[in-house]
Amino acid sequence: MSPFLVRHGDLLVSRVDQIPSGAAKRPHLVLAEGELTGHSHRIAESQSAKLFQFQNDLYLEVVAAEATLIHQEHGPIALPKGFYKAWRQREYSPREIRTVRD
Fold it and tell me: Does 47 map to a domain?
């Protein structure tokens, strides 16, 4: 499997070998919601992917040839068929490590 890591604003998406067993299927395709703007990082095509949660982590299975990751403030990114982990980026300041907010 070739490495795949993309940044979509404050969201990172990386290819993984599989989704952990015991992951729960989510009823939507929103990978992250913006607390400041109300915008969301989500998959555009509802039948192209499935979203899962395992503990505090989100995993995406792209079941179509590709799925489009969209957000109102960023260009679309095509994710090829496969498994992915998605998480919010964090930033360092001298006082704390905090999650980046859109």
Answer: yes
- Residue 15's nearest CA partner among 71, 66, 91, 74 is 66
What's the angle, vertex CA 83, arms to CA 78 and CA 86, rounded to 5? 75
Q: What is the pLDDT along the chain (102 residues), one digit of tens a residue?
A: 456 767 656 788 999 999 999 999 999 999 877 665 666 788 999 999 999 999 989 999 999 999 999 886 767 889 999 999 998 765 555 665 555 554
Residues in the chain: 102
Single pTM value for the model: 0.78
Number of domains observed in the structure of the chain: 1
Asked, for residue 98, whether it belongs to a domain, the answer is: no
Instruction: Summarize the chain as % helix, strand, coil (round to 5).
Output: 0, 60, 40
